[in-house]
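Suppose you are handed a protein chain with no further information: no name, no annotation, nothing but its sequence. What can you learn? This example shows the usual starting point.
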Amino acid sequence: MAGPQFKYFPKFGKITEEGLAEIRSWMGKQFQCYEQYHTEVTRDNIRHYATLGLGDDNPLYLDPEYAAKTRWKGIIAPFSFPSSCMGRRGIPQGLPGVHNLWAGGELTCPAPLRLGTQIRCSSQITAFEEKRSQFAGKIYRQETTHTMRDQNDAVVAVYRHWAMRLERDESRERGKYKDITLAQVTDEDMKKIYETYEREKSLRRGAVPRYWEDVQSGESLPTMVKGPYTVTDMIGWKMGNGWDQFIRVYRLKYEYAKKHPGVMYKNTLGVPDVIERVHWDDDMAHALGAPGAYDYGWQRFALVSHLLQDWVGDDGWVRKLGGEVRFFGVVGDTLYLKGKVARKYAAARAHGAEGKDHLVDLDVWVEDQRGRVIAPGHATVMLPARAGGGGASA
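A reasonable first move is to predict its three-dimensional structure. Written in structure tokens, the prediction is:
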């Protein structure tokens, strides 16, 4: 028996002056997060994040014997792992029923997180301003900064991201993406993708150092492919990275909805469910004006960190990575991760430590199969140097 064949567009919340004033009243205030997805760096957490979230089986994250022979003397977490340690609750959002569309972010993690590191996250709204867009007309850019500290109260990572607060009815009615067709993947397309996957491990630098002196400005990184994107890939990302701000089940979902009535909307069967299902439910995505269920914004840059760590090798480290999303990456799309060296330089180490870090800035970006740059970004990596060490401290 066929299921429902109609579109159901719920009545969504509106941007109000009262809601805007409430957000502005929170500006600059520190909020201690609670119920973080990850609060400690463990082997299981790293394995879930690397393999399920990124599709990365680098032994640096998974094999104790291999990792013990590297400069780190043991397993480390992937660069982008701190995003899974963000506080999910305790962070005020404001504007109930108004969409919160991830638009950009930047993660700084000066050194790898080691096993046993405990993570405590606090957050604050650091910017809030009115903008205009073709997608939804008047929108508001809401920036949040998450600071992660270890058990010694040392800052180990800072994740700053911004979202566009927009009215879903307005974005749908404007129809910016109405002419975008979903990918139709052929066997020939899959053959080319599989050929790229076959080469992926051979491009991992691993134990062979990539020295800072050997890097040239304008040098291109090998292209890494991820996709075609499926709901299964999204589930893997959720299992590795978490982000359970809205996810509840059964009675806990009911109790949460009583406190936050703007977070649940009926599906085509008339059943209330979380708004986050825009990432796996085409009907909910269409209600926003998206062409179909789509990926998570930060997920794209986390995938880019896989490319970067493979390029720098075991002795290097990704120090900073960020960028913006320009288009939806919908189910069926194939993502091509690319990068190019912008400049290299040496900089004094922080906190008066002796020596210098040997750094490389890169332009990075994600293209889809249509040839569109859907996520331009930037990165800074640290490399070992033949003269004077370099790279992150072990």
